[in-house]
Design a protein that fits this description.
The chain starts with 6 loop residues before the first helix and ends in a 6-residue tail after the last strand. The protein is 40% helix and 13% strand. It has one domain: TIM Barrel (Alpha-Beta Barrel). It is globular. The protein is of the alpha/beta class. The relative contact order is 0.20. The chain binds flavin mononucleotide. Flavin mononucleotide binds next to helix 2. GO terms for molecular function: FMN binding; oxidoreductase activity. Keywords: Flavoprotein, FMN, Oxidoreductase. Its cofactor is FMN. InterPro entries: Aldolase_TIM, Alpha-hydoxy_acid_DH_FMN, FMN-dep_DH, FMN_HAD, FMN_hydac_DH_AS. This is FMN-dependent alpha-hydroxy acid dehydrogenase.
């Protein structure tokens, strides 16, 4: 194939490139993958109402998130184990982010350390999984803060790992040589090998704290100056609780359909949440973003920016840093064209009048 022209072509190439275990881990959703599919289908349930005869000769995609200015409203979602896709792993992703002036959210479960990623100079947030070992959790937060991460993104939808049957079937674990690079102080820095089960599921059961509640967010905020963003909110009442507990941002997300199967598509959950919280906190979303028009719809429903997950891994698997850069470029160009064709030269011009849900009546 000549160079891929969209994210889906990257996905096809990545599938051929990756081991069965890595492909299974990256692509899967939980159980019957209903939410995984619905995350995509949701974009088709909205139609656009473009505005005409607006001067779109100059376009500006820049946004400000938590006071940081970004070249476009797209962040790289936190994703574990990127060295499974390419030997340069998270470093390659970080370099692509730096080049594009885009924010990378680094996973706690990265295969290169938060210090190594910080050394690339990329705009960065740190994603935190709260471990039962609170000393270790605190040390992670302090390391992230001292290494210049600009926000703490606390994932709240994973007290346990969702049952991902591909990982059970493949007895998912890390190949020799890959490690949980941020957790080298732990005795066991890799995933356990578990017969007939996923090593990641076992890791979470052993290490991650399922007793986490809103009170713990106060504990986290007491130990850091970094703004806290909660990732994995799907209900307006939870969003309001997040506001009450002082968080600065909310990521509407179902973890790419990998946690509770049957959970609402992120796009469908978005408007209730943006309506409920208004301007009190910044609302971002992720899940199923594969086209620039998907981003336009998410912004029209009130998101300030989106995070992109799997497409980054497809780019990384196919072409390392250059592959990630190209994926980011494709999505950006698609968004820019969609904005121009709908009469929105600036991100601030995108509003809810641009989208209309498809109902039975207008199908
Ligand atoms: C392979 C993979 C690993 C992930 N690892 C993490 C993680 O370590 N922490 C986290 O908060 N979310 C993780 N996620 C969820 C993503 O941050 C994001 O919510 C999701 O991928 C967005 O959906 P999309 O892949 O359809 O774009 C992971 C997702 C994938 C696909």
């Amino acid at each position: 194939m000549t160079q891929p022209i969209n994210v889906f072509e990257y996905e096809t190439l990545a599938k051929n490139q990756l081991s069965e275990m890595a492909w299974g881990y990256y692509s899967t959703g939980a159980l019957d993958q209903i939410t995984l599919g619905d995350n995509r289908a949701a974009y088709e349930r909205y139609r656009l109402r473009p505005r005409m005869l607006v001067d779109v000769s100059q376009r500006d995609l820049s946004v400000s998130i938590l006071g940081q200015s970004l070249s476009r409203p797209i962040l790289i979602a936190p994703m574990a184990f990127q060295c499974l896709a390419h030997p340069e792993g998270e470093i390659a992703t970080a370099r692509a982010a730096t080049e594009a002036g885009m924010m990378m959210v680094l996973s706690t479960l990265s295969t290169q350390s938060l210090e190594e990623v910080a050394a690339t100079g990329c705009p960065r947030w740190f994603q935190l999984y709260v471990h039962k070992d609170r000393g270790l959790t605190k040390a992670l937060v302090q390391r992230a803060e001292s290494m210049g991460y600009q926000a703490l993104c606390v994932t709240v939808d994973a007290p346990f790992i969702g049952r991902r049957e591909a990982d059970v079937r493949n007895e998912f674990t890390l190949p020799k040589g890959l490690k949980l690079a941020n957790l080298l102080t732990m005795a066991d820095v890799t995933l356990p090998d578990v017969p007939d089960d996923s090593g990641l599921f076992a890791y979470f059961k052993e290490q991650i704290d399922p007793s986490l509640t809103w009170k713990d967010l106060e504990w986290l905020q007491s130990m850091t100056k970094l703004p806290v963003v909660v990732k994995g909110i799907l209900r307006a009442d939870d969003a309001l609780l997040a506001v009450q507990h002082g968080v600065k941002g909310i990521i509407v997300s179902n973890h790419g359909g990998r946690q509770l199967d049957g959970a609402i598509a992120s796009l469908d959950a978005l408007q209730d949440i943006t309506d409920a919280v208004g301007e009190q906190v910044e609302v971002l979303m992720d899940g199923g973003i594969r086209r620039g028009t998907d981003i336009l719809k998410a912004l029209a429903l009130g998101a300030k920016a989106v995070l992109v997950g799997r497409p980054i891994l497809w780019g990384l698997a196919v072409g390392g840093q250059a592959g990630v850069s190209h994926v980011l470029q494709l999505l950006t160009e698609e968004l820019e064209l969609a904005m121009a064709l709908s009469g929105c030269p600036r991100i601030g011009d995108i509003d809810s009048s641009l989208v209309e849900p498809r109902t039975i009546a207008n199908l």
